[in-house]
Write a structure and sequence with these properties.
Layout lengths: L8 E5 L3 H12 L3 E5 L11 E2 L3 H5 L4 E3 L10 E2 L8 E2 L2 H6 L6 E3 L4 H10 L3 E3 L4 H22 L8 E5 L3 H13 L2 E6 L2 H9 L3 E4 L3 H4 L5 E4 L8 H4 L7 E4 L9 H7 L2 E4 L3 H5 L1 H28 L1
Parallel strand pairs: 1-2, 1-4, 2-3, 4-7, 7-8, 9-10, 9-12, 10-11, 12-13, 13-14
Antiparallel strand pairs: 5-6
Helix pairs in contact: 1-12, 5-6, 5-12
Length: 303
């Protein structure tokens, strides 16, 4: 049993089922956990519940917010909270200078305010060591959703993967392993070359309009409006779209519904389809991240 976090207090704020597995793993490493937003969850031995977010931020060494982050109003995703948890100006002002705020995805407004207020904001969605491992449950979940939504098998299907990033590569490889005919869509020549090397049909994003009509299953990982009205007009009406991009996704869902195309928005799949694995992934990475930033911060404050 590692005690790398011994003597360090962490506030775990909101989240979903993955936090229920993350917290005990952090405790095994010696951390003292203050929970915010777990009133409706089964009690976790050794965890102290804080009455409010504002109360917690001034009494811990590190703040751990969920991978989803907050919505545009600052409301934190908190499946087991009895009341909304809001990361507002009053809370941010209460954060001591020495306390880093670790969050999965930080909205631009939060980044801007944190910078102005001198808050050390650490966005984990950009870390390869987390996102590559998280791409495994994300890809499995996306394929599961496609299986449930379509009337054909994945094997032999014409499956199109939009975006060959960390999740896109894992998804394309899994689809190929099941026997799908995979088309990978990307902008970068290097990604297109790698797709060819891996046995995928490679298509540049600028040529998507000519290709998309052939797809039976479309997986989108691009966090921009790629499947707009014009592009959806080209999609077969019996095709299925599974959009893994962060809310609001990269699909015009309202127009897809008007056209009779089944389109599913599926962000945050690790916490839905494999919360135990997703929680353990975070428990592998967070201790190193926390210790590295606390060491750097302490050295800065002492200099």
């Amino acid at each position: 049993m590692s005690a790398g976090l011994k003597g360090i207090s962490l506030a775990v704020i909101g989240g979903d089922d993955r936090e229920l597995y993350l917290i005990p793993e952090l405790q095994k490493q010696g951390a003292y956990i203050v929970g915010v937003g777990f009133e409706k969850a089964s009690p976790i031995p050794g965890m102290t519940l804080s009455p409010s977010l504002q109360d917690a931020v001034g009494n811990v060494d590190v703040l751990l917010f969920p991978m989803f982050g907050t919505d545009e109003r600052g409301v934190v995703k908190a499946k087991y909270s009895e009341s909304p948890i809001v990361l507002n100006k009053e809370v941010l002002e209460a954060i001591p200078a020495r306390v880093p705020l670790i969050i999965g995805w930080a909205r631009p407004a939060l980044k801007s305010v944190a910078e102005k207020m001198g808050i050390q904001l650490i966005e984990t969605i950009t870390l390869n060591e987390i996102t590559i491992l998280n791409s495994i449950p994300s890809a499995e979940g996306a394929i599961q959703m496609a299986m449930e939504a379509t009337t054909i098998t994945i094997h032999g299907s014409k499956s199109l993967v939009l975006g060959l990033g960390r999740t896109g590569w894992t998804l394309a490889r899994m689809l190929q392993g099941i026997g799908a005919h995979v088309t990978g869509v990307a902008r970068k020549p290097a990604d297109l070359a790698r797709a060819v090397e891996m046995g995928f049909h490679a298509v540049h994003l600028s040529d998507l309009e000519d290709e998309i009509g052939r797809a039976e299953i479309i997986f989108n990982t691009v966090p921009h409006l790629i499947l707009d009205r014009g592009m959806l007009e080209k999609v077969a009406r019996d095709a299925v779209i599974v959009d893994l991009a962060s809310i609001p996704g990269g699909t015009d869902f309202e127009y897809a519904q008007m056209l009779g195309i089944k389109a599913i928005l599926a962000p945050g799949l690790p916490g839905i389809v494999a919360p135990k694995t997703a929680g353990r992934i975070l428990a592998q990475i967070y201790p190193q991240l926390i210790l590295r930033h606390l060491t750097t911060l302490n050295a800065t404050l002492q200099s």
